[in-house]
Automatic annotation (TrEMBL):
UniProt GO molecular function: hydrolase activity
EC number of the protein: 3.1.-.-
One Pfam family hit: DLH
Residue ranges annotated for the Dienelactone hydrolase domain, each copy included: 15-230
Protein name: Dienelactone hydrolase family protein
EC category: hydrolase
Keyword Repressor part of the UniProt annotation: no
Species name: Phenylobacterium terrae
Record key words, sorted: Hydrolase
Keyword Acyltransferase attributed: no
PANTHER family: ALPHA_BETA-HYDROLASES SUPERFAMILY PROTEIN, CARBOXYMETHYLENEBUTENOLIDASE-RELATED
Length: 232
């Protein structure tokens, strides 16, 4: 079971976060960046899973400025409607600032050894990319990030390793956008890209319509190997 942590943001607000800790410390930390459904069971399970792998894992409530405590699923039309309303109201720039505050907060925690990575999904996949361009996180992982093609002007700011998972049939990242992203980043010395043929958006969301156990496992193994290499 995890715990709730309060994090002070750069503009003086207070944001809650779900934290799961490993059996041993100090350990490297990973910031888990939510999808559009809030800090729900899927995100908490990912956070718990990273703790089981030896990381201090923390999932901040990035929708706190709109509505704190969002915890919905992808299982009903009403929840999807709510999720897209939150997505459309979300301030990406403020969100990245809140991620930077989370990185700084957990880096200073007594159970963290000073190394901090990030992993994000969907909206969080875009935010993970921006974490690589705008924060001092030591390594970032983006799962099927939405809207990255509109942020490629920041690619020159990537100074730490970034791993990207792209679903080739992603309905929210169409093939022209994928081509832009891959074309701009494939030769970047800090970027590693894996694509997943035949897979749609959210291939790794357990219980989701497009979940694929085999490719989710492959992506997860690649992510853990990446974190072990760059965080320890």
């Amino acid at each position: 079971m995890g715990e709730t942590r309060s994090i002070r943001t750069s503009d003086g607000g207070t944001m809650s976060a779900y934290v799961a800790r490993p059996g041993r410390s100090p350990a490297p930390a990973v910031v888990v960046i939510q999808e559009i459904f809030g800090v729900n069971k899927v995100m908490r399970d990912i956070t718990d899973g990273l703790a089981a792998q030896g990381y201090v894992a923390v999932c901040p409530d990035l929708f706190w400025r709109i509505e704190p405590g969002i915890d919905i699923t992808d299982q009903s039309e009403a929840e999807w409607k709510k999720a897209f309303e939150l997505f459309n109201a979300f301030d990406v720039d403020k969100g990245v600032q809140d991620i930077a505050a989370t990185v700084a907060d957990i880096r200073g925690d007594s159970t963290c050894n000073g190394k901090v990575g990030a992993v994000g999904f969907c909206l969080g996949g875009q935010l993970a990319y921006l974490t690589a361009t705008r924060t001092d996180a030591d390594a970032s992982v983006s799962y099927y990030g939405v809207g990255i093609e509109n942020r490629l002007g920041e690619a020159g700011k990537i100074g730490k390793p970034l791993l990207m998972h792209i679903a080739e049939e992603d309905q929210f990242v169409p093939k022209p956008a994928q081509a832009q992203i891959i074309g701009a980043l494939k030769d970047h010395p800090q970027v590693t890209i894996h694509t997943y043929p035949g897979r749609d958006h959210a291939l790794a969301r357990v219980g989701g319509e497009h979940y694929h156990e085999g490719d989710a496992r492959t992506a997860g193994e690649r992510t853990l190997a990446f974190f072990r290499q760059h965080l320890g």
